Structures are given as structure tokens and as C-alpha cells.
Amino acid sequence: MDESFDREKIIDCMFDPITSEILAKLEDGKKECSVLSQEFSMSESDILQRLDYLIEYEFIFKTSENQKYFVSANNEKLSSLLENNDTFDGAINGLEKMDSYLN
Fold this sequence. Notes:
Layout: H1 7-15, H2 17-25, E1 31-32, H3 33-40, H4 44-56, E2 60-65, E3 68-73, H5 75-83, H6 85-102
Helix pairs in contact: 1-4, 1-6, 3-4
């Protein structure tokens, strides 16, 4: 997979309030999109659209089984992104930006 992703866009996706909650649900393993859809009162296509950029660069895996979609986190890749100092600074900036919207 091409590693030319936009780090800032990945961080923005990860720290989006709804997407971050979805990612938290994926910490325990793969989840069926229909279950996430019910939990977040969103359509499955909206869930997948929110995760689209993360799926494109394999931070999230999307699989299909018996005509149902499942998503799971690539914890290793997500962790390595956050361990990078430049990225961590970007995450802090993202959190500060999110905090300014809330205040």
C-alpha cells in the first residue's frame, strides 16, 4: 500500500468526536457495521464514509462475510503513527483545535 497519506488528515479523522468513539469500539476487535450503525444511530454507509480515509490507508480494515461488512482497527499501524513525534505534536494540536471549538 502506498504510504503517501496525509498525516494531518489521518489525525483529524482519528480525533473526530464520532470517529474516535468508533475507534474506541474497535479496540476489542472487529465489529459488524450494522452493530456500529445501531450504536451510533447512523447508517452503515455513513459509518463507512467516516472511516473511508482510514480504510484507504489500512489504518482500519474493512472485510465482508456473508454479505455483511465488518471493520477492525490496525492497532499496530495506528500506534506507530501516534508514536511518531511529529504526529504526536499534530495530535496535540488537533486536540487543542477541538477544545477551542467546544469552548
